[in-house]
Structures
1.
Amino acid sequence: MTARWMITAAYVALAVSAVALQLAGRARRLCLVPFGEVIAAVRVSPVGRLVLALGWAWLGWHLLAR
Amino acid sequence: MRRPVRWLAAIAGRAYAAVATLSRPLTAAAAAAVAIPVGIVLVQSVRRRPPTAPAADTRLCRRTAAAWGAVVVVAAALELVAFSRQPAYNVASPGFPTLSVLLDPLTEVGPTRFVLWCCWLWAGWALGRR
C-alpha cells in the first residue's frame, strides 16, 4: 500500500464523514444540527466571521490559484 | 437583499467566474482573480454584522462544531504532511499528493473549474452578506 493510496483513501474517508455529518445534522440525529446553523452561530462574532473568511480564502487559493 | 440586487449579484458572479476560469493555476492572473474577491469578503466580514443571533441550541451547535472541527483538523494535518513532502512550493510530490493535486483534473481547466469558481464565489458572497 503506497503513501499516495493511503492519503487518497483518507481524503475519501473525510469526504464521506462530512456527508454523513451533514445528513445526520439535517435529520437532527446523533444530537447534531445542520452545518449551516453552526456557521450562522460562528458568524455572530467578528472573530468567527474573520476565521470563516480566512478559511474560505485559503480554499480558493489552494484549489483555484495554485 | 432585494430580488433585483440578488439577480445582478448572481449575474456578476457568473461573469467573474467565467473570466477567472480562463486563468491558469500557478500564475499571477489566477492569484489576482482569487485575491480580488478575498479582499472584498474580508472587508465585508469584518465591517458587517449579521442582523440577529441564531436561535440554535448552543449545546447541539457545540457538539456539531466539534465534529466538523475534527474533520477540518484531520484534513489540515493531511495537507501539512503532503505539503511538507513537496520538493518545492510549486512542485507536487507524486507520493504525497495535496488535495489540490488530487483534484487537479477537475480544477485545472474546463467546465468543472467554472463550476468550482461559481461555488467558491457564492460561498464568499454568503459569508460577506448581512
2.
Amino acid sequence: MIDYQYLIDYFEEFPFLVQLVWRISGVLFLAIVLLTIYLKAIRYKLRKKENEHVTFKKEYEALLVEYLYAESEDEQVSTEQQSIILKLKNHLPIKYKRKMIISVLYNLMNEVSGEMAESIKTLYYKTGLIDYALKRLKNKNWYVIAKGIGELRRFKIEEAHGAVIKFIKHPKNEVRKETQLYLVNLFRFEGLSFLDDLETPLSEWAQLQLLEVLQKFDDQQICDIKPWLKSNNNTVVLFALKLAQIYNQFEVKDILIDLLSHKEKEIRICVIEVLTNMYGIEAKEILKTNFNELSIEEQLSFFGLLENLVVPSDEPFIEKHIFHKNFEIQLLALKILKTINIDKFMGLDKLPSNKEVPEMFNLVNNV
Amino acid sequence: MDTSTVNLILKTLHYLFFIYAFSAILSYIILSIISGKETINYLKKKSFVNYKDILSSTMSPSITIIAPAYNESLNVVENVRSLLSNHYVNYDVIIVNDGSKDDSLEKLIEAYDLEKIDYIINEKIKTQPIRSGVFKSKNPAFEKLMVVDKENGGKADALNMGLNISTSKYVACIDVDCLLIEDALQKMIKPFLDVTNAQVIATGGVIRIANSCVIKGGKLIDVNLPNNLLIQSQILEYLRAFLLGRMAWSRLNGLLVISGAFGIFDKKIAIDVGGYDTNTVGEDMEIIVRMRRYMEEQGRKYRVTYIPDPLCWTEAPDNYKIFISQRNRWTRGTIETLRKHRKIGFNPKYGSFGLLSYPYWLIFERLAPIIEVVGILYFVVLIVLREVRWEYAFTFIVLAYLFSVLFSIVALYSEELTFHQYKKKGTGYKLVLLSALEPFVLHPFILYAAIRGNIDYYFNKNKKWGEMKRKGFTTEGA
C-alpha cells in the first residue's frame, strides 16, 4: 500500500505533459492488450467458423439431396419432405445457417435441371427463405437490398418483379446493377427495357455482365435496338452497338452509317468495328471521303474495315497510304495492297522511297 | 552565443521535432481510418461481383502481361507457367529477356517449344535493340506466350520493349519472379471497366511475401509464416503499408506509387507519356507520377486505383545485405522521382496531387529518415551537454514504441478481418510478438538503408540497381 502511494506521489511530481503522455501510453498499452486478446478470439472464431462451414455444408447437402429424392408421385409434398422443410425452417432464424442453406440450395440448383430445379425453387418458397429475401428489399442499407435482389435473381423469382423494379433508379450503383441483372436474367431481352430511359452511365463492366447473361440464352431474335442506338446516353449507344455486333443486326445498318458522324469518338470507332463485322461496305466511301478529318484511331479502325472488305477499286486509296506516318496503318496498307495487287506490292521493292520501310516490306512479303 | 539564444534554439528544435512526430502519428491514424472504411466498402461491393462473367467474356478488354527477366534461369520456366495459368480469356504474355547472361532463353525455348518469328517492332518508345529475336511457341497450348530477347538495358527498358510490342489495350507490368493468383487479372481490370466518372489510368495490387509458401504448378498451395525474423518483419511491414496506407491513398486518389512487382496500366497513356524512365531506379513510382502529371496538365479526370486482395506473391530478401540494397534503391528512386517532378509540389495547379500527395511523400517519406537521424544526433548532443530531461525523453520513447506496436497490431487485426491469409495455429501469436520486436529488428536497418540511399544518391551517382539474388519459391515435394 505504501509502495503504491509512493508511486502515485512520484507520478504526481511529474510535469503535466509527462503525466499526460504516461496516461496516453497507458491507454495504448491497454489497447494493445485488448486487441491482442480480441485478435486471438477472432482467429479462434474464424477457424471454428471454417470447420462449422464444412460440417453444415455436408449436413445441408445431405438433407437437400434427401429432399429431392423423397418426392412422391401422388402427393405434392411428401411427409419426408415436410419434415425436411420443418428442419430447415428451424435453422433459418440463425443468419449464418440461413446463408449456408441458401448457398447449398443455389449450388444444387445449378447442378440440376427440369423438375428437380423446380423442386428446389418450391423448397425455397416452402421454407420461407423468399420472405427473408423480400424483407431485405425493405432494409435501409444499400448492400442488404442488393443482396436481396441478387438472391431473388439467383432463384429466378419472377413474382418479385414489382418489388425489384423500384430499385432501377437507386442512387447506389451496386443496387442498380443487381436490379439490371435481375431483369435480364429473368426476362431476357424484355428486361433490357430499362435502357429506354437510363440516365446514369452503364459501365463497361455492367455491359459485359449483361451480355454474358444474354448470351447464355439461345435467342437469336432480339428486341428492337434502334431507340438505344439513338439514345442520349452514350453508354447505352455503346451497349446497343455491342448487341448489334453479337446478334448481327443488319437492319440497323442505316442508323450505324448515321452514327459515323456521332460527336463521341469512342462511339465512331465502335461503329466502324461493328460495320466491319456486318460487311458494311456502304461506310467505305463515306470514310474514304472524310479520311483526313478522322482521328488516328478512327483511321486505324477504317483500315481494319478495309482489310476485310477491300475490292480492287480501293487500290488508289490504299496506295496513297502505304507511307502513312502511323506504323499500324502503314503495315495494314501494305498487307491490303499485297492482297489486291501482288505485282504492285512487289514493285514497291524497287521504289527508292521504300528504304524507309524495308523491314516492314520484308515482313509483309513473308507473311 | 549567450545561454538565452542557445535555449531558444533548443526550444525551437524541440517544438519542430514534436510537431513533426505528432503530425506523422496523426497522419498514420487518419490514413488507417480511411483505409479501414475503404476496405470495408471494397469488400461489401466485391460481394456482389461475379468475376466469372468477365472470365468467359470474349468482349473483355485485352491485357498483355509484360515480365522482364534478367538472369532468371533458376525459376523462369516455372514462373512463366504461373503467368500462363491466369483465368482470363483475353490476355497474352510477353517475356522480355533483358540481355540475360545465363541460359534463361535456352530454357524457355526448350520448355515452351519456341521458334523465332519474323517481327518488326513499332518503336514508339526508344529501347535497346533486339538480340536473338522474337519467339513464339509452336505448341498451340502456349499460343499466349511471346518471348523477346533483347540487349540489356535494365528493367525500365525491358518494360518499354513490352509496351512497344503489346497490341492490347491494357498492360500488366510484373516481375517475372512474382506469382500471380489465377483471378488476378479479372480483379485488377475491374476498376478500368467500372469507373464511369473518370478514366482509370493505373491499378495497383497488394504484394504479399511468398518465402516459405508452398507453390505447385505455378499456383499458391499453402501460406506459411517463414522462420526468418527479417522476412517475418517484412511481412508485418507489408501488411501495414498495404492495408493501412495505400487503400487510403486510393480513396483520396493520391496514390503516387504502384509496386513494380504488379500493376496494370492503360497502355495508351503509358506510351503517350513516353513509357518507363530508364534513368531512374524508381521507375515504378516515376511512371505513375508522370502519368498523373500528364493527366492533370491535360485537365482530364482520372484515377489511380488499388485492389487490396492478395493477388501477387513475391520473394522478399532473406538477409540484411540484400534487404539494405533493396531499400537503398527504393530511397534513391523516391528522391529521383520527387526531384524530377518537383514542379508539382505545393502547386495548386495540380490540385490534391500537388497539395496533398506530393507534400506527404516529401515530408513523411523522403525526409523522414533524415529528420530521424538528425533527431538522434540532436539527442546525442543533448546527452553530451547534459541537457536531456530524462523524464520527458523516456516518456516519449515509450509512447512512440507503444504506438508503433499498436499500429502493427491494428494491421494484423485488419488482415484477420479481411483476407485472413495466415491461418495456421500459433501464427497469430508469432505475429503479435513480432509487432513488439519489429521496431528493433527491422526499423534500424530501414533507417540505415535510407541514409545510405541518400548518400549514394548525392555522392555515388553511378550506383544503379544493386544485388537481388533469388532462391526460388518452395515447390510442393521439394
